[in-house]
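Figure S7 source data.
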Amino acid sequence: MIFDATTFSTPLKFKTELCVVGSGAGGSMVAMQAAGAGMKVLVLEAGSFITPDKMNQREEKMFPQLFWDSGGRTSVDRKVKIYQGKGIGGSTLHNINLCKRIPESILKNWIRTNQLEHLSLDRWNELYQKVEQMLSVSVIENNLLNKHNQLLKNGCEKLGWKGGMLKHNRTGCLQSGFCELGCSFDAKNNACKIIVPQAVQSGAEFITHCQVSKIIHENGRVIGLEGFVIDPITSKPINKIEVEAKQICLSASATATAAIILRSDIPFPDNSVGKTLHLHPGIALAGDFEENISAWKGIPQSYECTEFLDFDNSLPNSDKASRIWIITAFAHPMGAATTLPGHGNKHYELMKRYPNLAVFSAMLHDESKGEINPTGDLNFSIDYNLNKKDKTELRNGLITCANLMFAAGAKKIIVPSNPIVEIENENDILKYLQIDFDNLNIDITAVHPMGSIPMGDDTKKFAVASNGKYLHLDGLWIADGSLFPTSIGVPPQLSIYSMGLHVGEHIVA
Ligand SMILES: Cc1cc2nc3c(=O)[nH]c(=O)nc-3n(C[C@H](O)[C@H](O)[C@H](O)COP(=O)(O)OP(=O)(O)OC[C@H]3O[C@@H](n4cnc5c(N)ncnc54)[C@H](O)[C@@H]3O)c2cc1C
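Tokens for the predicted flavin-adenine dinucleotide complex:
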């Protein structure tokens, strides 16, 4: 069953065998596994249960329901916008459905540096196969390429750069293009549609509008947790919740999970919790085309350019970016209006070009490390600054997007920097963009927080083992994007679902 905590009378006290915090890619999988094996499972989710009939394709209605801080979460210095989802299904509700496996060279590197005795290459392979089957992952067919993604393909082909069609987890897609606001047609094979129902069928209970604050422990083992019932309109706490549980699995995402541990007075080795957050920061530019593109129509992000994503041979001192992934990115009208710089007539003129704009984005497989610090009972801050090397990579990524845009036929390039940069001749790209990254003064966006509690099997160095078991407090587990030892350079959901399955199996065992 799925219950709404705001409908219960006070005070809220529960007792369960396993309490899972968060119902996204990681948490839903753990709940499904554990309930399927007969455990009594309670899942606490801070967001709402939002069914497809309530996904009305309106930005102003859906952003507050689907995203933390209504989509306004940022790093401390406000330089990075960080989008994270909430609700039954977590960030899988609004994500774009891209599915990619972590490249083998990264997995091998993790084994070399962090051991990971429970996560051999064969184990990853087994997990990926199971998850891909559950989510019906398939390559987007060529005939479903919308005009926007066709432009990226054209640009790659003209320049002779590597690219290809992406895999997604969608079935029966009507190509409405509103994926980021949740799918009104229930065509996403996400946690809410595929995993949560199986967990519920096996007896797992989910309670919405419950935000966990901290874990309660005694004599080296967990005994329960505390949190608050949250008013869905004001996001303010309205009541207390207490849960008594022998086992707790934190799956509240790479930001919130670290904050809960840091708030709970739990031991861990230095720097092993909340100091190594990666974000996959991205920057984007728009191309203005003569023809109408209507980039909001059709399946978003179906084509990728991987010419500058070199996982095997990183080029640390090269001017050429090697950790850059290029895809299309488009926003609905409100998002576009807030991203395009300027105001008044100039902004009006830019928005009038909305149907003719294409947007390419460079996402960085980042090495920079951010920090999470709890503030009060429920909130936390995210401190994230790009290091010099990452700034250069990202800047080079922007140059690459500009080259692709002109190759695709753009008449003008609009860089959403402050002040705005407009480039009408491809020979001018370097003149405008080969400058110090800080001088670009451009919005950075991140949608893939990960790596805040890197897993490893050495108790002296790591907080959590490669089976998700917390090494310094009995009964505690972690299953979400926190666990990755580095950033992964590809969209993370497939790997987080896989970690959920992996940790769920270990909890049961
Ligand atoms: C706009 C956007 C597009 C994306 N597109 C893709 C894509 O195409 N492909 C891809 O692979 N990835 C994509 N991602 C990223 C991917 O969706 C996430 O990396 C993944 O879902 C994270 O899984 P998770 O289990 O770690 O966290 P989440 O799925 O975010 O789940 C965490 C859950 O915990 C809940 N929670 C948080 N704090 C608390 C608390 N204190 N108490 C109780 N509950 C709590 C949250 O409300 C949330 O429901 C996208 C992300 C965004 C924002």
